[in-house]
Amino acid sequence: GGMGTDGDHVAFYSQDMNQGMQERMRIETGLRAALGNGELLLHYQPKFCIENGKIIGAEALVRWRHPVRGLVPPADFIPLAEATGLVVQVGEWVLEAACAQARQWKDAGLPPIRLAVNVSAREFTASLPGRVQDTLERYGLEPTWLELEITESTLMHNIDRVIGIMDRITAIGVTLSLDDFGTGYSSLSYLKRFPIDTLKIDRSFTIGLPSDANDCAIANTIISIAQQLKHKVIAEGVETVEQLAFLKNSGCDEVQGYLFAKPLEAAAFEEALRANWAPGHAHRAA
Ligand code: C2E
Ligand code: MG
Ligand code: MG
Ligand code: MG
Predict the structure, then answer these.
(1) Taking the model in full, what pTM does it have?
(2) In ligand 1, which atom is closest to the CA atom of 43?
(3) Nearest CA to ligand 1 atom 25
(4) What sign does the dihedral 138-144-150-156 (CA atoms) show?
(5) How many CA atoms, within 13 angstroms, populate the side-chain half-sphere of residue 39?
(6) Minimal-distance CA residue to ligand 1 atom 42
(7) Which residue puts its alpha carbon closest to atom 41 of ligand 1?
(8) Is the CB of 236 under 6 A from ligand 1?
(9) How many A from CA of 273 to the centre of ligand 2?
(10) Which of 33, 225, 234, 244 is the most exposed place for a label (fewest CB within 10 A)?
(11) Strand-pair category, 55-66 with 40-49
């Protein structure tokens, strides 16, 4: 008997699945090689003080310079790396590369900044604090150079264990920020127990400011929670002067977004940092 429509559909579907799996395996094999090949690199997106417009830090964001595909954004390989566990090795590479870069900037006499590294839930293990401390020591960096950005997904399992790891990290003097805040499922009753320094307002909320009343309410609520809990608050994804004005008026401390700068190559970030701190330089956030 011939195949019915359903049969064709199933055959087509499983071929799709097969192609999807082959694609995933190609990415995984490629990424494993990329880790040793020097194909990964970091871009640096400046973070600004909303009050005086000065660059106070940067977020290190990983990219993969693929020989065929060109510059691959993290959205195209981090989720897979998280699923396979390879994100642990990627994270090790990122921390090492960020600290090496910070050391170069320190040696070049640039103003000290706080360099933020994104850490996946799977990296947030008992060995992380020791690795962070060891890396800072090897590069001769004060812990105030480093910040770790974690997301609510990190906080979802075994909260006491997670808080223990957080406490060990902050004991070193490294700060923690809660990325994409409000998009996950973290409970407010736990929030007060986390030794975090900064809440990051997710871009999905910043985007509707100031025209969307719900986004305005959410942004104001996050800022208010941060203030009550004595945390700093930064808005990501700031693209317009109207968004900036709203955030400044609402008491947000820091901003990050395309209005000021996209993630930059190291040399371009260094240039921005020098220019921003030059005497007399007035930034538009000021
Ligand atoms: P994230 O940590 O929330 O980083 C912010 C993302 O928003 C970055 O995308 C940044 O380029 C983008 N962005 C910043 N300002 C604006 C803006 O004004 N408009 C728009 N449209 N986008 C803006 P990117 O670099 O593609 O990174 C995406 C995500 O990949 C990050 O989200 C983070 O979750 C993950 N990621 C990046 N690097 C790493 C890493 O080293 N380790 C881990 N585990 N995850 C990483
Ligand atoms: Mg981040
Ligand atoms: Mg974020
Ligand atoms: Mg985000």
Answers:
(1) 0.92
(2) 25
(3) 61
(4) positive
(5) 20
(6) 118
(7) 62
(8) yes
(9) 20
(10) 33
(11) antiparallel
CA of 60 to the centre of ligand 2 (A): 8
Is the separation of the CB atoms in 272 and 46 below 8 Å? yes
Read off the tokens for 174. 């490294």
Q: Identify the H or E element spanning 216.
A: helix 213-228
With a 6 A CB cut-off, is 61 part of the ligand 1 pocket? yes
Q: Is 188 exposed, middle or buried (0-12, 13-18, 19+ CB in 10 A)?
A: exposed
Atom of ligand 1 nearest to the CA of 123: 44
Tokens linked to 284? 């538009």
Query: φ and ψ at 281, to 5 degrees?
Result: -70, 125
Q: Is the CB–ligand 1 distance for residue 85 below 6 Å?
A: no
Query: Average pLDDT of each block of 10 consecutive residues along the chain (286 residues)?
Result: 47 69 88 94 98 97 95 96 95 98 97 97 96 98 98 87 97 97 81 94 97 98 96 98 98 98 98 87 50
Tokens of 68: 């065929």
SS3 label, residue 60: strand
pLDDT of residue 10: 55
The reply to whether ligand 1 has any atom less than 6 angstroms from the CB of 82 is no
Ligand nearest to the CA of 120: 1
Q: Is 155 within 8 Å of 186 (Cβ atoms)? A: yes
Nearest Cα neighbor of 93 from 28, 42, 149 is 42
Check if 92 has its Cβ closer than 6 Å to any atom of ligand 1: no
Q: What is the ipTM of this complex?
A: 0.98
Which residue has the least CA distance to atom 27 on ligand 1? 74
Give CA–CA dist 158/164, Å, rounded. 10
